[in-house]
Amino acid sequence: MQAKKRYLLVFVSCAFLAYCYFGGYRLKSEDSNSEIHLLPDFVDVDALRTGSAVRRKERPNSESTNECRMDTCFDFSRCHKEFRVYVYSPDESLVPSHSYQKLLNVLEESRYYTSDPTQACLFVLSLDTLDRDRLSTDYVRNLQSRIQRLPFWNNGLNHVIFNLYSGTWPDYAENGLDFDPGMAILAKASVSVNNLRPGFDISIPLFHKKHPEKGGEPGFVISNNFPLNKNYLLAFKGKRYVHGIGSDTRNALFHLHNERDIVMVTTCRHGKSWKDMKDERCDEDNKEYER
Protein backbone atom coordinates (compact mmCIF):
# COMPACT_ATOMS: atom_id res chain seq x y z
CA MET A 1 0.00 0.00 0.00
CA GLN A 2 2.82 2.34 0.92
CA ALA A 3 4.51 1.53 -2.38
CA LYS A 4 1.37 2.47 -4.32
CA LYS A 5 1.21 5.80 -2.49
CA ARG A 6 4.84 6.50 -3.30
CA TYR A 7 4.33 5.68 -6.99
CA LEU A 8 1.18 7.87 -7.04
CA LEU A 9 3.06 10.73 -5.39
CA VAL A 10 5.91 10.46 -7.92
CA PHE A 11 3.41 10.40 -10.82
CA VAL A 12 1.55 13.46 -9.56
CA SER A 13 4.83 15.32 -9.00
CA CYS A 14 6.01 14.53 -12.54
CA ALA A 15 2.66 15.60 -13.98
CA PHE A 16 2.81 18.87 -12.04
CA LEU A 17 6.35 19.61 -13.19
CA ALA A 18 5.42 18.83 -16.79
CA TYR A 19 2.42 21.18 -16.58
CA CYS A 20 4.55 23.95 -15.09
CA TYR A 21 7.18 23.59 -17.80
CA PHE A 22 4.96 23.32 -20.88
CA GLY A 23 2.28 25.61 -19.54
CA GLY A 24 4.82 28.27 -18.64
CA TYR A 25 6.43 27.96 -22.11
CA ARG A 26 3.03 28.41 -23.73
CA LEU A 27 2.29 31.49 -21.65
CA LYS A 28 5.71 32.89 -22.51
CA SER A 29 5.10 32.27 -26.22
CA GLU A 30 1.69 33.95 -26.02
CA ASP A 31 3.25 36.93 -24.26
CA SER A 32 5.95 37.09 -26.96
CA ASN A 33 3.35 36.94 -29.71
CA SER A 34 1.33 39.70 -28.07
CA GLU A 35 4.45 41.85 -27.80
CA ILE A 36 5.29 41.23 -31.47
CA HIS A 37 2.09 42.99 -32.49
CA LEU A 38 3.30 46.05 -30.60
CA LEU A 39 6.63 46.16 -32.44
CA PRO A 40 7.17 48.84 -35.09
CA ASP A 41 6.59 47.79 -38.67
CA PHE A 42 10.26 47.94 -39.64
CA VAL A 43 11.09 44.84 -37.56
CA ASP A 44 11.33 41.51 -39.39
CA VAL A 45 9.10 39.30 -37.24
CA ASP A 46 10.31 36.06 -38.81
CA ALA A 47 13.91 37.00 -38.21
CA LEU A 48 13.01 38.00 -34.66
CA ARG A 49 11.69 34.50 -33.93
CA THR A 50 14.90 32.93 -35.22
CA GLY A 51 17.06 35.31 -33.22
CA SER A 52 18.68 36.94 -36.26
CA ALA A 53 16.70 40.18 -36.37
CA VAL A 54 18.44 43.53 -36.67
CA ARG A 55 16.41 46.69 -36.22
CA ARG A 56 16.78 48.50 -39.51
CA LYS A 57 16.37 51.85 -37.83
CA GLU A 58 19.70 51.40 -36.10
CA ARG A 59 22.48 52.89 -38.19
CA PRO A 60 24.81 50.21 -39.54
CA ASN A 61 28.49 50.21 -38.70
CA SER A 62 31.24 50.62 -41.27
CA GLU A 63 31.30 46.88 -41.95
CA SER A 64 27.67 46.78 -43.02
CA THR A 65 27.33 50.00 -45.01
CA ASN A 66 26.66 47.92 -48.10
CA GLU A 67 23.19 47.53 -46.58
CA CYS A 68 22.63 51.30 -46.38
CA ARG A 69 19.24 52.68 -47.31
CA MET A 70 17.73 56.14 -46.86
CA ASP A 71 15.96 55.05 -43.66
CA THR A 72 19.16 53.73 -42.07
CA CYS A 73 22.02 55.90 -43.34
CA PHE A 74 20.48 59.33 -43.80
CA ASP A 75 19.47 62.02 -41.31
CA PHE A 76 16.27 63.61 -42.65
CA SER A 77 16.11 66.03 -39.73
CA ARG A 78 18.78 68.13 -41.46
CA CYS A 79 16.49 68.63 -44.45
CA HIS A 80 13.14 69.48 -42.84
CA LYS A 81 13.41 73.22 -43.50
CA GLU A 82 15.08 73.64 -46.87
CA PHE A 83 17.16 71.50 -49.20
CA ARG A 84 20.66 72.96 -48.98
CA VAL A 85 24.03 71.66 -50.19
CA TYR A 86 27.30 72.52 -48.48
CA VAL A 87 30.63 72.19 -50.31
CA TYR A 88 33.72 71.89 -48.13
CA SER A 89 36.36 74.58 -48.38
CA PRO A 90 39.10 73.59 -50.84
CA ASP A 91 42.31 71.99 -49.63
CA GLU A 92 45.03 74.47 -50.53
CA SER A 93 47.55 71.68 -51.03
CA LEU A 94 45.40 69.94 -53.66
CA VAL A 95 44.14 71.22 -56.98
CA PRO A 96 41.03 69.34 -58.20
CA SER A 97 40.82 68.12 -61.76
CA HIS A 98 39.14 70.33 -64.34
CA SER A 99 36.15 67.97 -64.45
CA TYR A 100 35.63 67.98 -60.68
CA GLN A 101 36.06 71.74 -60.48
CA LYS A 102 33.28 72.16 -63.03
CA LEU A 103 31.03 69.95 -60.91
CA LEU A 104 31.78 72.02 -57.79
CA ASN A 105 31.17 75.25 -59.72
CA VAL A 106 27.70 74.10 -60.76
CA LEU A 107 26.82 73.22 -57.15
CA GLU A 108 28.16 76.47 -55.69
CA GLU A 109 26.30 78.55 -58.28
CA SER A 110 23.00 76.72 -57.78
CA ARG A 111 20.11 78.00 -55.68
CA TYR A 112 20.58 75.05 -53.31
CA TYR A 113 24.08 76.03 -52.20
CA THR A 114 24.77 77.23 -48.66
CA SER A 115 28.01 78.36 -47.09
CA ASP A 116 26.64 77.51 -43.64
CA PRO A 117 27.19 73.82 -42.78
CA THR A 118 24.64 73.96 -39.96
CA GLN A 119 21.92 74.63 -42.57
CA ALA A 120 23.03 71.89 -44.95
CA CYS A 121 21.07 68.78 -45.84
CA LEU A 122 23.83 67.36 -48.06
CA PHE A 123 27.62 67.66 -47.88
CA VAL A 124 29.95 67.45 -50.90
CA LEU A 125 33.71 66.98 -50.67
CA SER A 126 36.11 69.48 -52.18
CA LEU A 127 38.55 66.56 -52.42
CA ASP A 128 38.58 65.16 -55.95
CA THR A 129 37.13 61.63 -55.95
CA LEU A 130 36.23 61.37 -59.65
CA ASP A 131 39.26 59.36 -60.76
CA ARG A 132 40.41 56.61 -58.38
CA ASP A 133 42.72 54.94 -60.88
CA ARG A 134 46.17 54.79 -59.29
CA LEU A 135 47.77 55.28 -62.71
CA SER A 136 45.90 58.53 -63.33
CA THR A 137 47.47 61.96 -62.85
CA ASP A 138 44.24 63.04 -61.15
CA TYR A 139 44.49 60.33 -58.48
CA VAL A 140 44.47 61.88 -54.97
CA ARG A 141 46.67 60.02 -52.51
CA ASN A 142 46.01 59.53 -48.78
CA LEU A 143 42.34 60.26 -49.35
CA GLN A 144 41.25 58.11 -46.40
CA SER A 145 43.13 60.19 -43.84
CA ARG A 146 42.11 63.44 -45.53
CA ILE A 147 38.42 62.52 -45.40
CA GLN A 148 38.61 61.40 -41.78
CA ARG A 149 39.85 64.88 -40.83
CA LEU A 150 36.81 66.62 -42.32
CA PRO A 151 34.89 68.40 -39.52
CA PHE A 152 31.42 67.15 -40.52
CA TRP A 153 32.27 63.73 -41.94
CA ASN A 154 30.47 61.67 -39.26
CA ASN A 155 31.23 58.40 -41.13
CA GLY A 156 29.77 59.84 -44.33
CA LEU A 157 26.28 60.57 -43.01
CA ASN A 158 24.41 62.89 -45.45
CA HIS A 159 27.46 63.09 -47.73
CA VAL A 160 27.47 62.55 -51.49
CA ILE A 161 30.62 61.23 -53.19
CA PHE A 162 31.02 61.53 -56.96
CA ASN A 163 33.07 58.94 -58.83
CA LEU A 164 33.67 58.19 -62.52
CA TYR A 165 36.58 55.73 -62.43
CA SER A 166 37.52 53.19 -59.78
CA GLY A 167 40.25 50.60 -59.67
CA THR A 168 43.22 50.24 -61.98
CA TRP A 169 43.74 48.68 -65.40
CA PRO A 170 43.08 45.93 -66.32
CA ASP A 171 40.62 45.04 -63.53
CA TYR A 172 38.94 48.40 -62.78
CA ALA A 173 37.22 46.89 -59.73
CA GLU A 174 34.11 48.76 -58.61
CA ASN A 175 35.27 48.67 -55.00
CA GLY A 176 38.63 50.20 -55.94
CA LEU A 177 38.01 53.62 -54.39
CA ASP A 178 40.96 53.19 -52.00
CA PHE A 179 39.00 54.81 -49.19
CA ASP A 180 36.00 53.89 -47.07
CA PRO A 181 32.93 55.95 -48.12
CA GLY A 182 31.12 54.95 -44.94
CA MET A 183 27.45 55.87 -45.03
CA ALA A 184 27.91 58.37 -47.87
CA ILE A 185 25.72 58.19 -50.98
CA LEU A 186 27.75 57.19 -54.03
CA ALA A 187 26.98 59.02 -57.27
CA LYS A 188 28.93 56.66 -59.50
CA ALA A 189 29.40 55.86 -63.17
CA SER A 190 29.55 52.34 -64.58
CA VAL A 191 28.13 50.79 -61.41
CA SER A 192 26.70 47.28 -61.64
CA VAL A 193 23.39 46.16 -60.18
CA ASN A 194 25.34 43.95 -57.77
CA ASN A 195 26.98 46.96 -56.11
CA LEU A 196 24.28 49.63 -56.46
CA ARG A 197 22.35 50.12 -53.22
CA PRO A 198 18.74 50.58 -54.45
CA GLY A 199 17.09 53.86 -53.51
CA PHE A 200 20.34 55.10 -51.98
CA ASP A 201 23.19 55.28 -54.51
CA ILE A 202 22.88 57.17 -57.81
CA SER A 203 24.00 55.95 -61.24
CA ILE A 204 25.45 58.82 -63.29
CA PRO A 205 26.82 58.98 -66.88
CA LEU A 206 30.54 58.68 -67.53
CA PHE A 207 31.08 62.17 -68.92
CA HIS A 208 34.15 63.23 -70.89
CA LYS A 209 36.72 65.70 -69.59
CA LYS A 210 35.69 68.08 -72.39
CA HIS A 211 32.03 67.95 -71.38
CA PRO A 212 30.83 71.57 -71.04
CA GLU A 213 30.12 72.97 -67.60
CA LYS A 214 26.90 74.51 -68.86
CA GLY A 215 25.01 73.68 -72.01
CA GLY A 216 23.01 75.81 -74.44
CA GLU A 217 21.63 79.29 -74.30
CA PRO A 218 18.78 80.31 -71.96
CA GLY A 219 15.46 79.10 -73.36
CA PHE A 220 17.08 76.57 -75.70
CA VAL A 221 15.29 73.58 -74.16
CA ILE A 222 11.84 75.16 -74.50
CA SER A 223 12.39 76.44 -78.05
CA ASN A 224 13.88 73.20 -79.37
CA ASN A 225 10.74 71.13 -79.75
CA PHE A 226 10.49 67.46 -80.65
CA PRO A 227 11.55 66.00 -83.03
CA LEU A 228 15.05 67.26 -82.31
CA ASN A 229 16.90 68.75 -85.24
CA LYS A 230 20.14 66.85 -84.72
CA ASN A 231 22.40 64.78 -86.93
CA TYR A 232 22.98 61.95 -84.48
CA LEU A 233 20.58 59.75 -82.56
CA LEU A 234 23.22 57.96 -80.52
CA ALA A 235 26.98 58.42 -80.11
CA PHE A 236 29.75 56.82 -78.07
CA LYS A 237 33.52 57.15 -78.34
CA GLY A 238 35.81 55.44 -75.85
CA LYS A 239 38.18 52.65 -74.95
CA ARG A 240 37.39 49.02 -75.67
CA TYR A 241 38.59 46.61 -73.02
CA VAL A 242 39.53 43.41 -74.87
CA HIS A 243 39.21 41.50 -71.59
CA GLY A 244 38.10 42.11 -68.03
CA ILE A 245 35.27 44.24 -66.65
CA GLY A 246 33.16 45.90 -69.35
CA SER A 247 34.69 43.95 -72.23
CA ASP A 248 31.51 42.09 -73.22
CA THR A 249 29.51 45.32 -73.46
CA ARG A 250 31.97 47.47 -75.38
CA ASN A 251 33.07 44.65 -77.67
CA ALA A 252 29.48 44.49 -78.97
CA LEU A 253 29.07 48.20 -79.74
CA PHE A 254 30.32 47.84 -83.31
CA HIS A 255 27.09 46.01 -84.16
CA LEU A 256 25.18 49.28 -83.60
CA HIS A 257 27.58 51.51 -85.53
CA ASN A 258 26.10 52.56 -88.90
CA GLU A 259 28.32 55.65 -89.59
CA ARG A 260 25.21 57.80 -90.10
CA ASP A 261 22.97 58.66 -87.16
CA ILE A 262 24.43 56.04 -84.79
CA VAL A 263 28.16 56.41 -84.21
CA MET A 264 29.72 53.90 -81.79
CA VAL A 265 33.51 53.86 -82.06
CA THR A 266 36.07 52.29 -79.72
CA THR A 267 39.83 51.88 -79.56
CA CYS A 268 41.97 49.08 -78.16
CA ARG A 269 44.93 51.47 -77.88
CA HIS A 270 45.30 51.94 -74.14
CA GLY A 271 47.51 50.43 -71.46
CA LYS A 272 51.09 49.30 -71.88
CA SER A 273 50.39 45.84 -73.30
CA TRP A 274 47.36 46.39 -75.49
CA LYS A 275 49.16 45.01 -78.56
CA ASP A 276 49.76 41.71 -76.80
CA MET A 277 46.04 41.31 -76.05
CA LYS A 278 44.45 42.85 -79.14
CA ASP A 279 41.93 40.84 -81.15
CA GLU A 280 41.33 40.59 -84.91
CA ARG A 281 39.14 43.71 -84.99
CA CYS A 282 41.39 46.12 -83.06
CA ASP A 283 43.23 47.56 -86.09
CA GLU A 284 39.97 48.34 -87.88
CA ASP A 285 38.39 49.80 -84.74
CA ASN A 286 41.42 52.00 -84.07
CA LYS A 287 41.25 53.47 -87.58
CA GLU A 288 37.53 54.19 -87.26
CA TYR A 289 38.09 55.71 -83.84
CA GLU A 290 40.69 58.13 -85.19
CA ARG A 291 38.52 59.01 -88.20
TrEMBL record:
UniProt record, GO biological process: heparan sulfate proteoglycan biosynthetic process
Domain Exostosin GT47 span(s) in chain numbering: 81-287
Keywords, in A-Z order: Glycosyltransferase, Transferase
InterPro entries: Exostosin, Exostosin_GT47
GO molecular function: glycosyltransferase activity
UniProt-listed PANTHER family: ACETYLGLUCOSAMINYLTRANSFERASE (PTHR48261), EXOSTOSIN GLYCOSYLTRANSFERASE 1 (PTHR48261:SF3)
Family designation: Belongs to the glycosyltransferase 47 family.
Protein name per its UniProtKB record: Exostosin GT47 domain-containing protein
Naturally occurring in which organism (per UniProt): Ignelater luminosus (Cucubano)
